Amino acid sequence: MTSPIGMTENDLVVACLKDDRLAQKKLYEKYKKAMYSLSYRITGDFESANDVLQDAFIKVFRGLPKFRGESTLGAWIKTIVVRTAYSYLRKEKIFFEDIDTLSQSPKIDWGHYLDAEYLEKAILSLPEGYRMVFVLVEIEGFTHKEVASILRISEGTSKSQLFYSKKKLREILSR
Which of 3, 96, 117, 131 has a 20 to 30 Å separation from 157 between CA atoms? Predict the structure, then answer.
């Protein structure tokens, strides 16, 4: 085993491929916070986010031999986390919602102040499909083409989900 201190990203990948446990731990430690945050924003639930994070990193370590370096390691891991979260939501029978179902969503009163916590709660209250696209485009910076590819939906669906998520978010925040 080599010491993971001072390793480049490429060195880290190579060491992980050699089953170097210290390198695997460093890789996990390097990305766990950001990937957990992404997972939580998509699932809207702490326990689900933990499940997704665990499953995603299993996929990361199993998939490292296929990592071609066409993107950064972080972007590659982020894609795995998003796809894992999407699969998790699909297993839970949560799909992209129709605009008609929004009126059935319960009204939640979070107080009168618009701060980061209030905004986070508003985003988390969006229907799962809307929230997923909103998080990926507006928070994580993915393009609609990338979202469409990751979620295996059309770019048009991605754009409409974002449009309706923003509309719903404005409605929630104006209360």
Answer: 117
